[in-house]
Amino acid sequence: MASPDTVLSSQPTPAKSKVLPPLINIKPVNWFFDFNRAMSLWPVTFGLACCAIEMMAVSMARFDIARFGAEVFRPSIRQADLMMVTGTVSKKMAPSVVRLYEQMPAPKYVLACGNCAISGGPFKFDGQYGIVEGVDKLIPVDVYVPGCPPRPEAILEGVFTIQEKILGFRFWPKAEEIPSDGPLAIQS
Amino acid sequence: MDLSLLSFVQIIVAVLLIIGLMVGNAVVMVYVERKVAGFIQRRPGPYEVGPIGTVQPICDSMKLLGKQLFVPANIDWILFFLAPVLAFFPVLLLFLPIPFGPYLTGLGVGDGILLILAFAGFGVLSNILAGWSSNNKYGLLGAARAVSQSVAYEIPMIMALLAVVFMSGSLNLSEIVAQQGSWPWQWNIVVQPLAFFIYLVSLVGETNRAPFDLPEAESELTAGFHTEYSGMGFALFFLSEYANMLLVSFVCATFFLGGYKGPFLDGFWWTFAKAYAVMFFIVWIRWTFPRVRFDQLLNINWKWLLPLSIINLWLTAIIMKIIS
After folding, report:
1. Does residue B21 sit within a domain?
2. What are the tens digits of pLDDT across the range A123-161?
3. How does the average pLDDT of chain B come out, rounded?
4. Per-residue model confidence as pLDDT tens digits over B88-117
5. Can you give the C-alpha Rg of chain A in angstroms?
């Protein structure tokens, strides 16, 4: 039985699994599957703290991540592609986060959402004992979305960035590229 | 029935067409379901992938095809890979006796509804095998729920169909359609409204759709019996779920809504229109009602649907005896 001090000062073990390279490496086939992966990123129903509220908001009426095919929140990690780490990762929760990441089948992407998941956020101070300072100490992270909590638009932009990372180019126009007049103009 | 070369060719062609129907139905229904869900929640739904999001289901299926096939530790290998296949193939057979049009039946089986009701049990068998073999406690709980739910809801379903069979005096689906008229007041739904209602409730329970989706209750059981399935295993379960929905909708259209008969011009378009109206109803109630608790689910069945269906069956039998 370890004393409480050693438990609190110990670091949780990071994920060990590696994503293997593709068995068949044919460029057009890879491009085809990458396109389909980018266009249907199913997130896992997994929220840790207040950023999860913004994750819910992004799938609801006003922001609607469903437009980009990423609204199918799968309860089982085996059917999900995207893990949004939304919120503070405490040391108590860290083994579960690592286990969920390792249980996810291969084309898997992680989005660290909010300051806590990026670096510990407001909970990082000298002598803190319960918080993992950044989820990238545990699992490899693809995209960081800053904010405390980030706006739903920022989470959408994070999903676009993951799509850009998969595809190699950005598929959607940037907000500042949309002309202020015309059919795509943003209504104020 | 002689198994001549012609009937053999007929069965092959029918099975190929039915596979096309099942896959096409799944592709369309994934899109329609997500779109209807969006409209019910006042959001556009899939919109950007392809013109108004129409390429979305193809992207989803291709992504599932390219997903890693995960094999958990300590599973039963044969049953684990047999279960999704077993969910998919028996449904194929059940479309054969359905009269899509006046001359459009896969296989003219005399007692078609017996075939459908007998093989419908295969769906729950695949659920049990999936839940049992994946060595997962949520899977096993989901499988147990699937069994008790399916066993419970099959009885009022059969009773409701039996009331119509009492009236028409035939188990043949084409015969049942032939005895109904073209106009809505000549359909069986007018003389058997209670049976129609009971069938409508129990078909939702039978296909494991919300509000009766207890075998895969997301908030309690992760994903129920298909928790451990990734990629194509999961896609096959999805495909068979939509095929089961389509099957019960076709049976509903045949038994209660006049089948291929409709105003002005009879034909297969009426069967499809009616079946997809029932499908839309199933999707609609999925996105408007919360999930029931498991005891509520069984109470609805054993305390209400079963006694009502027995009373309905008695009344039908007595009235038919008096009339004839």
Report:
1. no
2. 888 888 888 888 888 888 989 999 888 988 899 889 999
3. 86
4. 888 888 888 888 888 777 777 778 888 888
5. 18
For residue A185, tell me if it sits in a domain: no
The owner of tokens 């390792």 is A102
Structure letter (DSSP) for residue A15: P
Å between A129 CA and nearest CA of chain B: 32
SS in 3 state form for A104-172?
CCCCCEEEEECHHHHHCHHHCCCCCCCECCCHHHCCCCCEEECCCCCCHHHHHHHHHHHHHHHHCCCCC
Count of structural domains, chain A: 1
**Residue B225: closest CA among chain A residues belongs to which residue?**
A76
Q: Is the CB of residue A61 less than 8 Å away from at least one CB of chain B?
A: yes
d(CA B195, CA B192): 5
pLDDT one-digit tens code per residue, A21-53: 777 788 888 888 888 888 888 998 888 888 889
Q: What is the pLDDT of residue B181?
A: 80
Q: Is B25 inside any structural domain? A: no
Instruction: For residues B190 and B246, give the distance between their C-alpha atoms in angstroms, rounded to a whole number.
Output: 23
Q: B109 phi and psi, to 5 degrees?
A: -80, 135
A56: containing domain: 36-169
Residue A87 has pLDDT above 80, yes or no: yes
Q: Is residue B54 part of a domain?
A: no
Q: Which of B126, B116, B100, B127 is nearest to B154 (CA)?
A: B116
Please give the residue range of the domain that contains residue B313. Answer: 67-323
Structure token digits, residue A158: 């994070």
d(CA B195, CA B312): 7
Q: Tell me how many domains chain B contains.
A: 1
Q: Is B13 part of any domain?
A: no
Task: Report residue A93 as tokens.
Answer: 């929760």
Among candidates A39, A75, A79 on the partner chain, residue whose Cβ is nearest the Cβ of B59: A39
* pLDDT, mean of residues B153-173: 88
Q: CATH no. for residue A119?
A: 3.40.50.12280
pLDDT band of residue B74 (cuts 50, 70, 90) is: confident
Interface touch B67/A68, C-beta < 8 Å? no
Choose the mutation target among A78, A108, A167 for the interface with B, i.e. most B CBs under 10 Å: A78
Check residue B44 and report its DSSP letter: -
In a domain, A162, yes or no: yes
**Res B308: pLDDT:** 92
Classify residue A31: in a domain, yes or no: no
Asked if residue A14 belongs to a domain, the reply is no
